[in-house]
């Protein structure tokens, strides 16, 4: 697998001196789904806008399938589809006409079969003669995706594609994304629904303050940074963690009825067996046990907070 999008030391400084991008360097592999995560104002939309030619970088470079986004703008832009965060469709336009217009905008010849194929994949074929104003919010977002796909791009940017969409439609839209990936389309998405990134993305890139904090395969990130917690419910409440258990990373609940033990899932030994013996030796009677594991959201919050401290 080779990189279809190569970004090198990309910077964007606005009038007044605000530096929105601070030397972003990133390779995005062909056919992968990359989740770009970051808090509001982190630089996600600026990065996408710059790569799509909506705003010009101050310095640095980026190529799409080898085409430079500045010196070979037309060739690079033809390979990119963009689904913006805001619904920017003409309310009185027709669904099918939007896709035909988008093809023409990129210099593609009229292709009724291609437009029909895209509409059918997005479950919009029966709505092709409807005006945009007659559609639900979820259907309008499908039209945005259809417009972005009409000229057959190899790279698709999805900027908060499920914002404001109900749970059922969100699930349908992610099915569409999975189909696009299967067809070989490279997808870069931003989302506030981190559980979706955890489920869908091949890799995760975390951006904060215009800088990439880390890029890693989702599974590797979960494995490396994910921690498990063992919560031990007690038969009798404690006022403090007994001295006999001081060697273990234990947190006592506010009401004293539970102890939580954090441990590394990748460690050779978790220490749980020793902890159980220590409970018995200390005369502590257990009522129940249950475990939980860090989600991508937990890891993301920790990474952003660490970035804020540096």
Provide a descriptive summary of the structure in words:
This protein has two domains: 3-222, P-loop containing nucleotide triphosphate hydrolases (Rossmann fold), CATH 3.40.50; 227-293, Alpha-L RNA-binding motif (Alpha-Beta Plaits, 2-Layer Sandwich), CATH 3.30.70.1560. The protein has ten helices and 14 strands. It has helices spanning 44-51, 73-78, 95-105, 112-121, 137-149, 167-182, 194-200, 218-225, 272-281, 296-309; strands spanning 3-13, 19-29, 33-37, 59-64, 67-68, 80-83, 155-159, 186-190, 203-208, 211-217, 227-234, 250-252, 258-264, 286-293. Strand 4 and strand 5 form a beta hairpin. Helix 3 runs parallel beside helix 5. It is elongated.
Topology readout:
Layout: E1 3-13, E2 19-29, E3 33-37, H1 44-51, E4 59-64, E5 67-68, H2 73-78, E6 80-83, H3 95-105, H4 112-121, H5 137-149, E7 155-159, H6 167-182, E8 186-190, H7 194-200, E9 203-208, E10 211-217, H8 218-225, E11 227-234, E12 250-252, E13 258-264, H9 272-281, E14 286-293, H10 296-309
Parallel strand pairs: 3-8, 3-9, 6-7, 7-8
Antiparallel strand pairs: 1-2, 1-4, 4-5, 9-10, 11-13, 11-14, 12-13
């Amino acid at each position: 697998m080779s990189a279809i999008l190569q970004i090198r030391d990309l910077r964007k400084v606005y009038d007044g001196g605000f530096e929105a991008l601070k030397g972003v360097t990133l390779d995005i592999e062909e056919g992968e789904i990359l989740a770009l995560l970051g808090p509001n104002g982190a630089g996600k939309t600026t990065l996408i806008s710059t790569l799509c030619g909506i705003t010009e970088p101050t310095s640095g470079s980026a190529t799409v399938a080898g085409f430079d986004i500045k010196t070979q703008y037309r060739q690079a832009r033809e390979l990119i589809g963009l689904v913006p965060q805001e619904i920017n469709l003409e309310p009185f336009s027709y669904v099918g006409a939007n896709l035909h217009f988008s093809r023409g905008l990129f210099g593609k010849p009229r292709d009724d079969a291609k437009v029909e194929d895209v509409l059918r994949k997005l479950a919009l074929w029966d709505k092709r003669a409807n005006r945009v104003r007659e559609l639900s919010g979820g259907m309008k977002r499908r039209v945005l995706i259809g417009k972005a796909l009409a000229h057959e791009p190899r790279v698709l940017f999805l900027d908060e594609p499920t914002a404001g969409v109900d749970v059922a439609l969100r699930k349908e839209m992610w099915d569409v994304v999975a189909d696009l990936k299967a067809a070989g389309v490279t997808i870069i998405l931003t989302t506030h629904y981190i559980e979706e990134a955890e489920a869908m993305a091949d890799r995760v890139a975390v951006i904060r303050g215009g800088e990439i904090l880390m890029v890693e395969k989702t599974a590797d990130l979960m494995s490396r940074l994910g921690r498990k917690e063992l919560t031990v419910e007690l038969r009798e409440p404690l006022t403090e963690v007994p001295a006999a258990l001081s060697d273990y990373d234990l947190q006592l609940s506010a009401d004293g009825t539970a102890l939580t033990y954090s441990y590394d899932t990748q460690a050779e030994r978790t220490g749980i067996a020793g902890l159980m013996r220590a409970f018995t030796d200390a005369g502590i009677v257990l009522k129940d046990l249950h475990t939980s594991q860090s989600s991508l959201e937990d890891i993301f919050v920790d990474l952003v907070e660490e970035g804020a401290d540096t």
